[in-house]
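job 3f2a | input accepted
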Amino acid sequence: MDNSFDFFVGTWTSRQRRLRKALAGSDEWYEFTGHTRCWSVLDGAGNIDEVTFPSEGSAGVTLRLYDKAAGTWSLYWAGSSTGMSLPPVVGRFDDTGVGLFTCDDVYDGRPIKVAYVWSDITAESCRWEQRFSPDGGTTWETNWTADFTRVS
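job 3f2a | predicted structure (152 res):
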């Protein structure tokens, strides 16, 4: 069993930063707070987190499932304003403790690659980033970050 995401089980606050417009050359960021609750399911073969963004009037849910045969995690996101995002991002944590999860997707009608990166993981904090690549992974734009602090 891979317990890579056990660190996230609990309650968190987060500082969210998001680009106003992705893949448009924007450098205008806005910030808001998130509140997350995460719990384990399937005897550790998965977990679920629910996040609320009070100032944004939105929320989201992530379902993470481990594929033992492939040694990878699949992360499914659904937002209250956007619905379910498919396909899931898929990947694993490397030996340095950084998790990289990717998929091919479409943004504003054009094909992109999506990456979620989990890093700087401690017992009390961690970081998540979302990146888009419009050129098959040659260049990446980080368009959303979350710095988490454990509450319990």
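job 3f2a | Residues 107 and 134 are 9 Å apart (CA to CA).
job 3f2a | closed
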